[in-house]
């Protein structure tokens, strides 16, 4: 089964002068790498039955509300 998903990343600009985002300011891991690792983990643990496919990626300059 292939599940098509929308990847939404909330990544507001925290330091406007430097152009640094929340992810950069907090030294967090790359969300694209994390989502790809998650997809591979689901594929492995489901023994190939569950496949996620990111069909659209949106990065927002805001906090979730």
Topology, element by element:
Elements lengths: L1 E9 L2 E3 L4 E2 H4 L5 H15 L5 E10 L5
Parallel strand pairs: 1-4
Antiparallel strand pairs: 2-3
Describe this structure in words.
Strand 2 and strand 3 (20-21) form a beta hairpin. 29% of the residues lie in helices and 37% in strands. The radius of gyration is 15 Å and the shape is elongated. The protein contains two helices and four strands. The protein has 65 residues and is α+β, with helices and mostly antiparallel strands. The strands form two sheets. The protein has a two-stranded parallel sheet. A two-stranded antiparallel sheet has the order 2-3.
Short description:
The chain contains two helices and four strands.
Give Rg in angstroms: 15 Å
Q: How many angstroms does the end-to-end distance come to?
A: 32 Å
Percent helix range: 25-40%
The percent range for strand residues is 35-45%
Give average pLDDT, whole number. Answer: 96
Count, helices: 2
H/E topology pattern: EEEHHE
Structural class: alpha+beta
Q: How many beta strands in the DSSP annotation?
A: 4
> What order do the strands of the largest sheet run in, or round the barrel if closed?
1-4
> How is the biggest beta sheet arranged?
2 strands, parallel
Overall shape: it is: elongated
Low-confidence stretches: none
């Amino acid at each position: 089964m292939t599940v098509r998903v929308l990847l939404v990343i909330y990544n507001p600009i925290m330091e406007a002068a430097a152009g640094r985002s929340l992810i950069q300011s907090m030294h967090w891991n790359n969300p694209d790498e994390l989502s790809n690792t998650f997809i591979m983990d689901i594929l492995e643990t489901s023994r190939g039955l569950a496949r996620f496919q990111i069909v659209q990626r949106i990065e927002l300059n805001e906090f979730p509300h």
